[in-house]
Amino acid sequence: QNPIKAAAEKIADTLRGEESRPQDSVPGKPGPVSPPVQEPTEPVQPLPPKVDQHGPETVSPTGQPTGAEQARVAQSGAYLTTAQGARLYDTDHSLKAGPRGPVLLQDHHLREKITHFDHERIPERVVHARGAAAHGVFQAYGTATAVSKAAFLAKDVETPVFVRFSTVLGSRGSADTVRDTRGFATKFYTEEGVFDLVGNNIPVFFIQDAIKFPDIIHAGKPHPDREIPQAQSAHDTFWDFVTLHTEATHHTLWNMSDRGIPRSYRMMEGFGVHTFRLVNAEGATTLVKFHWKPKLGVHSLVWEEAQIAAGVDPDFHRRDLAGAIEAGAFPQWELGIQTFPDTPEQNFAGIDLLDPTKIVPEELAPVQPIGLLTLNANPSNYFAETEQVAFHLGHLVPGIDVTDDPLLQGRLFSYLDTQLTRLGGPNFGQLPINRTHAPVNDMLRDGMHQTAVHRGVAPYRPNSLDGGCPFLAGESTGAFVEVPAAVAASVKERKAPASFDDHFSQPRLFWLSMTPTEREHIIAAYTFELGKCYEQAIKERALLVLANIDTELCEQVAAGLGLPAPAGDSRLTDPGPSPALSQLGQTWPLDGRIVGIVADANADLDGVRSVRQATLDAGMVPLVIAPAGGTLGTDDNSVTVQRTFATARSIEFDTIILAGAAAAGTDAHGARDAKAGDTQPTATDPRLLLLLNEAFRHGKAIGAWADADTLMADAAIPSGAPGVIQGDTATSTFEQVTQLLGAHRVWERFPTTV
Ligand code: HDD
């Protein structure tokens, strides 16, 4: 058989989804994962779509593939065709009058190819333009049935989901690791219709009323004259606004904390932010706040890592999410609710539940778990799924309703409206990623991009010509009926309630809940961001705001800016800490963590192999780093190199382990300096020293199982420093390092200046 034809047929088979998933890799089922965790970036057959990828309509409620319907529609048959299905014999040359002649207008393929290309882009999201997403499954515990009749919350019900994470300010091509809030939007394809939970990784918002949203976003986006800086809050307009509009203080403080620079989307909390209203089968209502709790804990980068990643790997978070899912380390979150009685005051412990700049501390209202989210499949096509997904807070199901939070109310308008421009018309709900899994029988008709072929002659009610169809449902037949919540009789006015006036006591609560290390990071963040502002008046105003949070915070930032600190506010109270707000002090699972193993040809390669295996066994990803690429050791027992001193940067690794002789620093010379026939050891490669020094300063565990004193000293790592392990064997070194990894970083090394 013609080999090209054979290859084409193989690709066609793959596109039809005929390859089978490994039997034991059951997406959505927590527990042992398969295939075993491996380096995410290693190319693995089959060709795309790979086993870790799904299209929107290829996943059953349990996450099982149901047949690659989408791939079939978009790509069926082995031959390249026009959009009309005519097979093509050449796509490399335009039709010309002779080989050197002018191009002929009649070349339909040329015109179709170029025209389609010219229109490939759609407007990016006005906010949250940069994002990454994954498919998954939500498995309800049944613990919410007392407060909500939503069918997908009933015990053991499994619901397919699509989750999109994002940054707020940057453009679609901006870096992942900038200091910003992260979006956490979840689409539940329930049997009663789509439910969207459109939240953030920060539980409070900058503003209390949606009418201020254009103001905060205009202030945060790049300056309108030069369009700089990209994806940053460290500039005058942002700080101008948030210091004049002090209801932004709480959210800004969270942004300046480690929450503004997450280590991974997999290690972020998510919050519905607003208070929602749940309704149970008896019609009783409860006010709730939604929380996503990551199984891997809440972890952050340090600022220097975030900055390095923005240059070295701008796709850091996107790559991490896709890589973990591809490797079988499926990220998981528990969905939880804080519940509050639905009283006319809509107030809990003195906190106005309609004010989206306030949290209710978990110590006052514990988060009760109601289900488990597992992300188990990467999208097959970024544009079709991640870019075209359209979330909306008005996508509700019976059992979940909104409240009068003025921020939420404005959002209910904005999300539908924005899709009309972004997705080009009112039929975006028909896009595969947005389609509900419930039966649809609407009377919406026509419009741009209508792909449904509606039948009947009477798209109106009442009608007799279509036999009265479709019929109206009642509550007993699953209708979504708004909760008849009372509205206090009042007059029309543009005002906020007095209970929205307190802008500082919760920022102070947050500050007082931080450990010294976290406080140090906050001080450094404010000092950096305000240091990037030009206008003195803005810096001075920011210090006045900080004086209302905490005197020490204000004084330290003032010292960094070289400005006098305004007098502390004598009215500062002590609300007491909420320990749940701190990210430190616990031990977390290690799934998907990256272990860098530095080795060279003279290293203890048996030890390297055993550390690699132990890393895999622990559900982590080992990456061997060597002076140059290729393999180390003899052909039949070699170790593959995944990173070289040129491609490895410390940000990628959660720990660095130095193998045997490499640790001595005598032979780990760079490929750059090495020459064939070198017998004498050359000086240690400066890139290795940088790797170690950065890993040290960023609080990462470092291990070695040969005498590494000289190398550590050269890398400016003090002798006896915490978290630097000198082991006897590969195994004991690995074990000691692993002990440290559970705490995420070696916190004893902080505070530092990063
Ligand atoms: Fe918003 C997108 C989260 C307030 C207007 N928002 C968007 C996304 C997230 C949030 C996660 C990205 C969804 C995706 O991945 O497609 N937004 C929030 C949260 C808010 C919030 C947690 C406050 C609690 N948003 C907010 C307000 C307005 C908007 C007050 C307007 C008045 N948001 C939008 C939008 C976007 C959006 C312009 C842009 C793209 C889109 O909706 O689909 O409509």
TrEMBL record:
Residues 7-22 have a biased composition (Basic and acidic residues). Its cofactor is heme. GO terms for cellular component: cytosol. Keywords: Heme, Hydrogen peroxide, Iron, Metal-binding, Oxidoreductase, Peroxidase. GO terms for biological process: hydrogen peroxide catabolic process; response to oxidative stress. Residues 29-49 have a biased composition (Pro residues). CDD domains: GATase1_catalase. There is a cross-link at residues 392-415 (3'-histidyl-3-tyrosine (His-Tyr)). The keyword Metal-binding applies. The keyword Metal-binding applies. Its EC number is 1.11.1.6. Heme binds at residues 125, 164, 213, 411, 415, 422. One of its GO terms (molecular function) is catalase activity. It catalyses: 2 H2O2 = O2 + 2 H2O. Residues 1-74 are annotated as: Disordered. The active site is at residues 128, 200. Residues 81-469 form the Catalase core domain. InterPro entries: Catalase, Catalase_AS, Catalase_clade2, Catalase_clade2_helical, Catalase_core, Catalase_haem_BS, Catalase_immune_responsive, Catalase_large_C. Decomposes hydrogen peroxide into water and oxygen; serves to protect cells from the toxic effects of hydrogen peroxide. Belongs to the catalase family. HPII subfamily. This is Catalase. It comes from Streptomyces arboris.
